[in-house]
Amino acid sequence: MRKGDPGTERIPVEWVLMKADTEQIRILLVEDDDGDAFLIEELLREARAGITVRRARLLAEAGKLIDEATCVLLDLDLPDSRGLHGLRRLLLQEPDTAIVVLTGLADEHLGEEAVRAGAQDYLIKGDVTGKLLHRVIRYAVERRRWHEAQRQLHVARVSARENARLERGLLPSAVLDDPRLSVAARYRAGGKQRLLGGDFYDVVQTPDGWVHALIGDVCGHGPSEAALGVCLRVAWRALVLAGERPADVLSAVQLVLRHEQQEEAMFATVCMMSVAPGRRTATLRLAGHPAPLLVTPHGIGELAAPPCPPPGLNDAGNWPALDVKLGDRWSLLLYTDGLVEGRISGSPYRLGSEGLMGLMRDALGTAPFDPGRVGDEALLNGLIDQVRHLNGGDLNDDVALLVLGCS
Amino acid sequence: MDLKLAHSNKDGIEIVDVEGEIDVYTAPRLRELLIELVNKKNYQLVVNMEKVEFLDSTGLGVLVGGLKRVRAHDGSLDLVCTQERILKIFRITGLTKVFGIHESVDQAIAARKAEK
């Protein structure tokens, strides 16, 4: 500190880097008195702490620098702030930063008030040793970290409960009564928050022997999208069970979406697969949704039905179908776009359906393939892990997978 | 990857140039720009996607949202795109039937004028 050189102190802040023998702690010292500031910095040096000090002379300056600090030493008597006002301001701005207040001998009571108001500790100027200062700072930072860890744990618990509740609505158990058919599904919430988005799926067998499978994705990502996803899935199931024809089911789902949507732009892409009672043929409808994969002993392919706009945007109400020959033994992999939108090893390119088919081929080995393996828990988990790995970490979007297999 | 946005007026039509990746993180900025333009009473929009490298479902949602906003004022939102990998996204999602997609900004403007 250039004590006694006020003429050059136009720059309000200086960095003083001290010898770092432990983990770096970045101190923001908010003190207008150069003498007091000098003393504190000398004490920090004496304590040999691995500490970086940045200084502000005004509360207004502190507000601009606090986001980089792990701990703030705050004088309660500043030119632009007196008493606890400054403490409250800084806590409001950066609730996670440890703040230790500095008081004079005459107003020790203020220190206690400050702790009640959220300061980690207080120090009385003139009564501070290097060791005490160092310990107070370390404890303050550790306590703050502990609180932050507790807070994150709490948030994680709440979101896990929330996810579990939505999951039951979005991802039900299949209604199926055919020993030849099997269903497997996977869901991974994307993004950093791991909150459930609006992906949903369902499988329902109707009394006439048809089996209808659905996968869908509400555009957007969040609680209202997830809630709409639950709505649409339940509507779909009810319409299918009521015996409506697939095209009529989708028209009605579109109506439900328009009635229930809270944001004007919402639409939901869906893929609906209806397997005939013989289990050798099916019809596929793709409304804005990625095409499912068909795995048979002879190959792995994409079932490209003529695309139409998704529910919410399909004003014409046409839901064209593709007739599909499945064969004897087969698996259908229905998925949401989160699975194919991941990056490929840092390149700007994305996995895409071609990349997904490549991964599936790698997983199944050489032909003839065993379609029954597509629904294996280990295979599906491995597939998602590989996609994540290629992406270089968590995927941005939710991923839902639904496998319907016949053996 | 970053998203760059610019806009300019040509023959009374607001051209929005988009460059980079429109994904869950960057799409909100495009949404804000489209809302701002509509609030300033620009109801004829052309979004130039020639320099867009990636578009995810959130980005599609933002474009659809923009389209719905201008249509509420009898306006239009056309797209300019010739890149196969972006066009493929519009085809898969069936949105080629929802948006007018053109090969150049001039063509988009001409098509808009012809419709008037």
UniProtKB/TrEMBL annotation, chain B:
One Pfam family in the UniProt entry: STAS
InterPro entries per UniProt: Anti-sigma_ant (IPR003658), STAS_dom (IPR002645), STAS_dom_sf (IPR036513)
Residue ranges constituting the STAS domain according to the UniProt record: 3-112
Keywords, comma-separated and alphabetical: Phosphoprotein
PROSITE patterns (alphabetical): STAS
GO molecular function terms attached to this record: anti-sigma factor antagonist activity
Keyword Transport among UniProt keywords: no
Statement: the UniProt record of this protein carries the keyword Phosphoprotein: yes
UniProt family annotation: Belongs to the anti-sigma-factor antagonist family.
Function summary: Positive regulator of sigma-B activity. Non-phosphorylated RsbV binds to RsbW, preventing its association with sigma-B. When phosphorylated, releases RsbW, which is then free to complex with and inactivate sigma-B.
Alphabetical list of NCBIfam families matching this protein: ant_ant_sig
Protein name, entry field: Anti-sigma factor antagonist
Organism: Trebonia kvetii
